[in-house]
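yo

u said u wanted the structure for the complex thing, so here. seqs first:
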Amino acid sequence: MRLSEILFKQSRMLYFAVFLVSLLFFSMVLVLLINVKQANLETHSTNNFKGKNLYQLSDNLYNDRETAYFSNSNSYTILRDFSNQLAQNTSLNYYNSIWQPIEIADFKGDVHFDAYYENGSNQQPYEVKGKTYRAIKSLQLNAKVFELNHIEAEEGTLFSNNDFIFSNDDSSSIPVLLGSDYAGIYKPGDTIHILYYQRPYTGNVVGILSPSQKIITANDPERLLDRYIVLPSMSFDNHVNVQAGRIFFKASLLSKINGIIITDLSPIELNKVMSTISNETHFNDFDIIGANSIAIKLLINMTEANRSLLLITAAISMIVVLLLFLWIISVVIRSNSSVYKVFLISGASFDQLYASTRNQFLLWVGISSFLPLFPLLILVSNPLYFVINYLLIDVVLCACFVIAIHLFIKRTFTRLNIVQQLKG
Amino acid sequence: MKLNIKTKLYQTNYILILICFLSIVTSWLISYFDYVNMVNNGYINKKSISFRLEEMNKPFNPNLSGYILMQYDNERLSPKYVYINGDVKLPPIIKNNNFNIDKDIDSHAAIVGASASIESIPNGYTITGTFDTSHSYRLSSDIWLLSRIEELHLDKGHYFIFTSPSSSPEDKLSALMNGNPYEVLSMQNYGTYSLASNSLFQNILWALYLFFLLIALAHTINGHRKDGKLITVLYYSGFSTYRLIWIMIKLRLFSFMLISIFLVISCVLLNRYIYSLWDTSWLLYSFCFIGFQSLSIIIASISTSCQYSVKKEGHRF
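structre next:
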């Protein structure tokens, strides 16, 4: 289109400026889209806990009672069966996150990974068989924790289903996940020598988590995983000989039965379910107490309020930026009015003017709207959702621009009085 | 020679004022988000310093003001002994009866969260307020025992969090410590600070601020370009280049600076009397914007005046 070429040559700088502004505008649209999705993801993960009843399970095996209980030869088997039944019962949603430091040999990280760093009661490293061990912050999580919290790995992978099953054959290696503060110190594929309940293990790093990943726990509504080593809380199936390695199995089983239950069941209904399990497994040395759900409710409120605030501010800022962009388009069209005068005098019609201007704009705006997609495809792992939604928004915005261009040119056209211009 | 060109030049300035206002609002939003995050994190800022004091050789400097110092036991974070000095913004508090911060510090007041365990308040403290927040689980379970800095004693706890609205809290903390050696701990930030959507949105607000800066700059350059012909005519009429520069600056800059400073002053008054934030960093960003625009107007005035007056050979009829 010769009209378009001449139009472009007359105001190259202006169209380049429009291109840059348009690029910035569409990048902002895309990033806002990603932000909205992220905010939705955060509320979605806290919604798993919304409106549910939380109960804490607590065993009664202390001091004398503990000694008396474990003098029975069946005690380990009973505990094992009890914990397996808890995990398998779908109405209970048994959620267990165990805060238990582990000892690591020749640990490469600095002092803020130590188990009691925040409390100040840092323990000195000790030597066993030539290796220096330090107590490091660690969490053991069962599969339900991963299911109900949205946890992402930046490098490597998360645990697989088999990792949560204790295996007697390969019993000296265990997969571990590291929090994001470990990035640069260890990487996926590294091995770490750990003592887990006094049992030596070779920890294989399977993944490093993204920054600021967190889980909801009974004691702390937010437990940030950045400084933690995460181990899977393993379940013992029927073939495992729990009698060998007393401290490890005793501590593991006891910690496994002190989790929280997230359920719709009322206290009476829960009591019924728990008595059934208790009768089947012959274990009743436990209490069900209400967990601190107020703090978790406030956390859910906070996440939702954050999302609302973001959405409102994002919508308002998008409208403002859109209006500014339309104003820029009108400025460009107005500054081209002398070129339009020449075209009109030469015999061009309004439709031709409108078509050539519209095509110019759509060309530059269209190219700049596709450019932000390239970094998206490279950086984001699952971009399909974003691409589709972004293209939809793109089409709507371009339609908006086309209508605006039509109105602006019509206004410029009606303001030009040809006869007056010809008279000079 | 008086010229009646003021009308045309003043019209285009409205857009610049609007963009200036939008950037002030964006700066304020950046600070507002930070304040909301601070409340959600238990009134602990990103710039707060967490430290441990093993022994206190000298008392803290009682003359320093403009900070909140929290002292707690390492076993549990609540209750905290809180020392407030100077005019700092407090978290949202529902006040019982006559709440007066200076009087309450002297009379051992306690401010509690809605779901705090009140039994852990020691004798001698009376509850004078409740934290008014339905989103901050950390503040809701918190207990602040207001005390005077002279009463600080290490058996109340060895752990401290120092928060100050000043631009360098580290210097203020060293001044407060008065020579006592302290060990800085690295602290994690909870609440909305740990939400990725929140930190991403802060970056978007910065991008928006930059966007407004660039649009205003482009508008200034474009506007000055249009004045080129006017400058040429004036130059041929006998005005010197320096006089032209002065006219351009007078007409473009002064009105902008006047109105934008008026905007900033009204925002400051609104901030002080209606809704204030923790610190005044938004004011700094706003002044940066106005300063940058003013500078760009001056440079554009000089360059277009020189370009359109002297031109190629600087001929004058």
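Chain B has two domains: 6-37+196-310, 42-188. Residues 42-188 of chain B form one domain.
cya
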